[in-house]
Specification:
By secondary structure, the protein is an alpha+beta fold. It is built from 13 helices and 23 strands. The strands form five sheets. Strands 5, 6, 7, 8, 9, 10, 11, 14 and 17 form a nine-stranded antiparallel beta sheet that branches. A five-stranded mixed beta sheet has the order 19-20-21-23-22. Strands 1-2-3-18 form a four-stranded mixed beta sheet. Strand 19 and strand 20 form a beta hairpin. The longest helix has 14 residues. It is globular and about 95 Å long.
């Protein structure tokens, strides 16, 4: 049965022994983030954590590590918690085939119970904010779904975006947000700023577990995240209309922030401990003005700890990165068998494929680099034979150690795009990329002979002159 809100999922985790309630009083810093970081080291069945006794807060409920294990990820998709990694990716791909399923509009969302507007807006009065890493520049919100629409085609549901971005709290009604250039939100903002307008946004926190998954899925520009949520749930995703912006937001959210990204306004944001396992520096990023907060009574603040992999974000963005890459490759190369893009959100991608002819594996690797996600993320692509499981790293290492000859099997592609957070880039946003062909060599085609070209017939020049003469007399 799909979950309509976070509270329903937390109860299911509790029932399945996948939620650990921390009843002792804890310090907001560093206890909560340290506990969340430690939880993911408990292995593939690590529990979610729930804190409601936080020193300095009188009414705090904080949920951490909700998606932070393969067991919890399986339960989010309504699968048995023992479901294996490859089986979860395969099931994700199977459900993707049901996409799109239209969302369901519902009335009376629970987040409409309480409202703050205008100068009464104070995010500190609603959320028990904490820092995640000791080098972070401030409080962050990093598991919220940001909803926006293409300002040039606002009625097109396909051009609506629901995405997760890092957000720093800059004041009681001010945020800084990072729209990475390859992401849809950056395109929406660029078009709004070209028209000299602010971009309306709705930022929803504490969502049902599938909304968090689709909001972190690298979909194509005109693909609707709510319609993918329906396919993954096996039932339409419930949504409601945000009262100020009119944007469609998850019906079951705990908190909905509404406002605008202010046109051409930038402020210094960061540093922040990122999913790459490194801190980003401080940069000038767009600013959000919050005009309205709607929230459930006694809201649960769902937060996400990230840092040195693996953390919760690596589980959240694993299957949902593999599946779209597989779908996009499979359309052009039916020989592709499986795609593993689980490592650091796809900075490394492993593809298994059959081959038609010599050079085929390298062509598949080049296609990975030009997929929507590959443009900004994939920096190294490893291609293995169809009988090598890309999710089985010992098998992949066997292929690398026995099939790959650096003399012929490395393709170095200079000066390619990558997200600015990639720490290996000398120039932020630009990196050389590498394709490693670790497949069994296939011989070149023998149908052509470069030393024996076909030449013009001896009469060709005479006919050329004759045709010119006839054409001139027309």
């Amino acid at each position: 049965m799909p979950f309509d809100d976070l509270r329903g999922f937390l109860k299911a985790l509790d029932d399945q022994g996948q939620l650990l309630r921390i009843t002792d009083q804890v310090m907001p810093e560093p206890d909560i983030a340290a506990a969340a970081g430690a939880a993911t080291r408990l292995g593939d069945a690590a529990p979610a954590l729930y804190f409601d006794n936080v020193q300095g807060f009188t009414d705090a409920r904080i949920a951490m590590n909700v998606h932070g294990s393969w067991a919890n990820h399986a339960l989010a998709l309504d699968l048995p918690k023992e479901t294996g990694i490859k089986e979860q990716v395969d099931e994700f791909v199977r459900r993707w085939a049901e996409f799109p399923i239209m969302p369901e509009w519902r009335e009376n969302p629970p987040w409409a119970e309480n409202t703050l507007e205008g100068d009464d807006v104070d995010i500190f009065s609603v959320l028990p904010l904490i820092r995640l890493n000791d080098g972070d520049g401030g409080f962050y919100i990093d598991k919220a779904a940001v909803v926006s629409r293409d300002p040039e085609d606002a009625e097109n549901n396909g051009k609506q975006n629901v995405g997760i971005y890092r957000i720093e709290v800059k004041g009681k009604r001010k945020l800084a947000i990072q729209p990475v250039p390859v992401h849809d939100l950056a395109q929406h903002l660029r078009r709004a700023e070209e028209a000299g307008e602010d971009l309306p946004v709705a930022i929803t926190l504490g969502n049902d577990p599938v909304i968090s998954i689709v909001a972190s899925t690298p979909m194509k520009y005109e693909e609707n995240e709510y319609e993918l949520a329906g396919a993954l749930r096996g039932a339409p995703a419930p949504i409601a209309r945000a009262p100020l912006s009119g944007l469609p937001v998850p019906w079951g959210s705990e908190v909905v922030l509404e406002g605008v990204i202010e046109s051409h306004k930038r402020e210094i944001e960061g540093p922040f401990g990122e999913f790459t396992g490194h801190y980003s520096g401080g940069r000038a990023l767009p600013v959000v003005r919050i005009d309205r907060i709607s929230h459930r009574t006694h809201p649960v603040f769902e937060h996400l700890h990230l840092g040195m992999p693996w953390t919760e974000i690596d589980y959240l963005m694993a299957a949902n990165t593999c599946a779209p890459l597989y779908e996009q490759l499979k359309k052009d190369f039916p020989e592709v068998q499986a795609v593993n893009a689980m490592y650091t959100h796809g900075l490394v991608v492993i593809v298994s494929t059959a081959k038609r002819y010599g050079g085929f594996a390298k062509a598949v690797g080049m296609r990975v680099l030009t997929t929507p996600h590959g443009l900004g993320y994939a920096a190294t692509v490893i291609v293995v034979d169809e009988d090598v499981d890309p999710f089985n790293l010992p098998q992949v290492m066997w292929a690398l150690s026995t099939k790959m000859n650096p003399a012929d099997d490395l393709v170095h592609v200079p000066n390619m795009s990558v997200m600015q957070l990639a720490p290996q880039a000398t120039t932020p946003g630009i990196v050389d990329k590498l394709i490693i062909d670790a497949t069994t060599p296939v011989g070149a085609q023998s149908g052509g002979h470069a030393g024996n070209p076909v030449r013009d017939l001896p009469e060709t020049d005479e006919w050329l002159a004759r045709l010119r003469h006839l054409a001139a007399r027309r």
